[in-house]
Amino acid sequence: MPSQSAESPACTAPTPDPRAVIAVLMAGTFLAPLDSSIVNIALPAIATVFEVRLAAVGWVATAYLLTNSSLVLIMGRLGDLWGLRRVYVSGFAVFGVGSLACALAPSLGWLIAARVLQASGASMIFAASPALVVRTFPPRRRGWALGWISLAVSAGLTAGPSLGGFLLGSFGWQSIFLINLPLVVVVVVAASRLLPSDCPVKEPFDLAGAALAAFALTSLLVGFSEIDRRGIASPLVIGAFALSVICGIAFVVVERRLEHPMVDLRLFSSRAFSAGVGAAVLSYMSLFAITFTMPFYLLQVRGVEPGLAGLILTATPVSMAIFSPIAGRLSDAWGSRGLTTGGLTWLAISIAVASRVTVDSPLALIAAVLFSIGAGLSVFTAPNTAGILRATPHNRVGVGSAITGQARSVGMTLGIAVTAAIVSTLLGGSELMSGEGALSLQDAVRFLDALRPALVVAACVAAAGVVVSWLRGDDRPGEAKVEPSDIVP
Description:
The chain has helices spanning 9-12, 18-38, 43-50, 54-57, 59-82, 84-103, 108-136, 139-171, 175-178, 180-194, 207-230, 235-257, 271-301, 306-313, 315-334, 337-354, 363-390, 397-426, 441-470. By secondary structure, it is mainly α. It is globular.
């Protein structure tokens, strides 16, 4: 494991108002997921304006996801080298310019390019946020802070669809991008003044490693995302996986030979670190099996109106917003092992219950199950992130933070790809998952017969995460008595 280098006084100087720091970081981690969730509702309107098919306009969302996923690791290393505050503030500036470019887009190509720019800024925000918590708070308070950041992510995901629908109906699709600009200005000014001082490190940037990591991750995500549409035997899918493997092997070879690699692979020699990252992948893989399929269940099997369906689906992020701060603070006292293992057990049981839904299950029960799923994930997420960062040397905290974000992206993509492949295969390639209109009773039963095995697999994935999480070992950060007043910021 890399040794923790001595820090400059600027790095270790106490923050006058850590709660102001949390407010700034929450603003950032609210805005980025808000933007990713707010856009989807406007895609049909954008397709109409630019006179393109929905398949083409889907790249407005896909380009954002791929760019964010492929750059977050690079941005984490830049945070270690150039300074986390600089990366965070620059990320907001880039995000703001990208948002303005999106609103002014005269064509679909321009809009997609602007989304790439926007996602580049978002990757800087996501990479720096947890690392800034480490720089600001002592170990006994980091779980508390990470819990509130998780709350902000949940709030962004919750507000996106409803806020997007209001803006779209009232002001047009450009407003979903323009709404970002006032908050960007406020956060840039506040972050420049309130966040802890930067601690730049005089080490060379590993350009070769950065390029190989970006190609490996992007190819992997493209391969998994195209399995359902093209099939696993498609030349594109096979080529993407082959390129990912080649670049991944080359990345490991290059990193092992460098004195200052982009990712110090010795990080993974820590059982707490590697188990935490593995459990994060498995948790998001199981979660997104539900996130991906439940809209189809509500809209097509049950014939629920989109507004009511959206309200039911918010049960998961609302639950996460409630439980994340509590779980984060408890992890400061108890460590990560018990909470993460218990959270994933809760998640696995909840998904198993979801696999038993029928064509006439009460909608209140569906909402309760989704709420329970969010609770299980929230008990896992903040403590797991705290555990990963506790196992990360201080001079590698930017990369450690970025790896947690990368684990989330890979898990999300795997969850959607595996679930879609199982359901589509069992449906025999039919178009029941087209999302267009309610199904007949016969087709609804067919869909549920295909959905249940996919959700059972997701529950088993979460159960595998239970084992992986337990293997992290005991990682209590020390004595940290939890007071009721600690649950609020």
